[in-house]
Amino acid sequence: MASLPADFPENEFISKNKTLVIYALSIITFFISLGFLDFYVLPTLKTTDIITHYAIRTVGGKNGTKPQKLSYHYYTQKGFTFSTVKNYIEESDIELEYSLVFKSVTKIKSKNNDYTSDISSSLSINGIQFYFYCVLLFSIAISLKILLSGKRFSENTFYNIICFNGFMVFLCLYMFYLY
Q1: Whole-angstrom Cα distance, residue 18 to residue 13?
Q2: Which residue in 42, 51, 88, 147 is a FRET match for 111, CA 20 to 30 A apart?
Q3: Which residue ranges traverse the bilayer (predicted)?
């Protein structure tokens, strides 16, 4: 990023919208941080539930190749949804632990097995959402450093901050919708 000379006047668009972008990025950071706190730090609630049905997510299967199983997506009687990688949950009676705020499933146990390490939905480290949110948080940190640094920057830099973070927010919301 090339900074502009100190005597170069700041772009009118940047000066009008810089504060708005800083507030928007701060609000996004707050909600993502709340999600991580909810999933990893805050206490959880326990319930027993019954798996009503599941779907197998696959990848590949083109040009005559056999599709590979990516994950199993489960639906329960009490309305919880979650995904697991690798292992299929054979028993329908399960015990779930879920987060307080967003009701994300954090632990899954059956009478015979513990499937907690296989969870791939929500902000579990096995899931894609975890990594998308981490990239977004890293991008927001860099963007806020640039915006709050006091140094002048180009209009292109400002547009890049808005567009990349906006695109990452879109991807995160889409992943939240899918999983």
Answers
A1: 8
A2: 42
A3: 20-42, 130-148, 157-177
Q: Which amino acid is at 88?
A: Y
pTM of the predicted protein model: 0.84
pLDDT digits (tens, 9 = 90+) for 24-70: 999 999 999 999 999 999 999 999 999 999 999 888 878 778 888 88
- Check whether residue 150 and residue 112 sit in a common domain: no
In this structure, the strands spanning 93-99 and 44-59 are: antiparallel
Q: Has residue 4 been placed in a domain?
A: no
Domain contains 26: yes
pLDDT digits over 70-84, tens only? 889 999 999 999 999
Task: State which of 98, 122, 146 marks the end of a domain.
Answer: 122
The C-alpha atoms of residue 137 and residue 33 are separated, in whole angstroms, by 9
Residue 5 lies in a domain: no
How many C-beta atoms surround the C-beta of residue 149 within 10 A?
A: 10
DSSP string of 130-143, one letter each residue: HHHHHHHHHHHHHH
Q: Quote the number of domains for the chain.
A: 2
